[in-house]
Here is the input.
Amino acid sequence: MTTALKYTDVPREQKWNRESVFESWEAFQAEFDAIKPRIAALEQFKGTLKESPDNLAAFLDAYTRLRRRVYRLNTVVTMATAVDTTDAEAKAKRGQVMGMIGSLNAAVAFAEPEILALGDQVLVWAADDMRLTPYTHYFKNVLRLKDHRLSPDVERVLGMLQDPFAGTFQTYRELVNTDMKFPDAMDSTGLAHPVAQAIVPPTGIQSTDRTLRRTAWESFADVHRAMENTLASNLITSVKQNVFLARVRGYGSVLESRLAPSNLPVEVFHTLINTFTANLPVWHRYWAAKRKALGVDQLRPYDVWAPLVKDDPRISYGQAVDWICAGLEPLGADYVRILRQGATTDRWVDYATNSGRMQGAFASAAYDTHPFVFNTFDGSLMAMSVLAHELGHAMHSYLMNQNQPEIYNGFLASGSSSSVAETASNFHQAMVRAYLMREKADDRTFQLALIDEAMFNFHRYFFTMPTLARFELEVYTRAENDQPLNAAILNEITSRLFGEGYGDTMVDDPVRTATTWGQYLHLYMPFYTFQYSVGISAAHALAENILASEAGAVDRYLAMLKAGWSQYAPDLFTGAGVDMTQPDAIVKTFGVMEKLVERLESLVG
Here is the structure.
């Protein structure tokens, strides 16, 4: 039995380039100590911003420079605590940085109300003063949301509500991650296996042993069923909190309130949901093909994650990088050179398999650092796909950093959109997958494994997430119309919607499927789910344009990445070549998926 390395023993080439940011914790602490008094000094600008463009420019310069330094610290602690959760010093530093971010936000809380007080005058200043001109889009976004800003006293009360309202989110996390204990699953030989939360819950669901898959799924679902009333009470409280906040701010619905900050029209949501529902037969066809591939009489929900091949192709990290770069060659030599150098010699990626690593994968970047990627690379095609995904986020960060001021960088940016961010990451996967489907056309095992990887991604982001979005729409519509909600109603909605998705080609277990709503933390972030589906749709539509050698498609896509958040999401999408208020991109993505299903059908006969 191989024992996983401690992080201190991991080879240097597998670790992220922490020394490129700070050479030591002593250097980190010195910077922390230097920043701290400068945060308090920002309050000298309070009450002065409307007096002159000089004051406003001086404040924005001081604030953005300081924020750059704070989030440089944050990038370090985010990565350090992910690669080794046992690193007590890193965790202590993270606590320090979280406190500093809170102090920074509190210190500048006066700024946007003062900008609002200026009204259109701030745009006149921005037009006349080159120091303020880069902030024009930011100013417009602040003013755009003016009607939903309330009096200082009410805003202060709403600010005080943030902490107690966050209790439902934290209660859910504690309940499902700490308090829930799952009975062991049993495999076909009678051997017991522990069941736990995982990236794709529960553990065991991806086994080739069908008995283990079934008993793991049943164990996981049954514990959620046993807690359904508590889970429902908690979620319904969260729903009512969000309805309250939307009403207080004058929005017509929670959906509108959640999309307004990124200026996404509600039509984007409804177009996605309506087009998804109309194309459910593509999913029904896939369930039928998977049933045949697995050789089972009836496909069950716990078979969705079953691997199509028993022995996945194994690949090295270097091979994965080579394939990712090859798949992205249509974007040009410069893009590929930056990507390859980042993934190798510049050590953007921490890809070790040491003990103590956090689950999952992510990309993290500050304006003055490399974009860094956390990805536990286990040599599977899925690990390569996740690496491609996170490097998509990394390249998006890199290009916006190179082309935009700090105010339009990252999710701190006014008007940022997860839909656009997920487009960049899913685009990488779409391009690499298309490349490998061509290159490995004669390798049946590899093709099956690649279809497995693709459908794993599609299932999560193009089936589960839009189905949960449909669930959210029904639940919030009921709440906004003061109709009753309880566990039985949540179960009925969920069972019905997943039943439509499964169709006649899947034999459901509706009682257990009914509590799927209780398994996703995403529902505590209203209408976040559908934005994954918007991203994957836009990504595949844009990839198809580039793969078809459409004139200007590459330049338009790169321009979207370089723009950062200096434009609103609808404008970024339109500029790149997709209109997400229309169904075309979603239909095109279902076409990509249908080709994968056709290929699976041809491979299994």
Observations:
- Strands lie at 185-186, 192-193, 349-350, 361-364, 372-375.
- The mean pLDDT is 93.
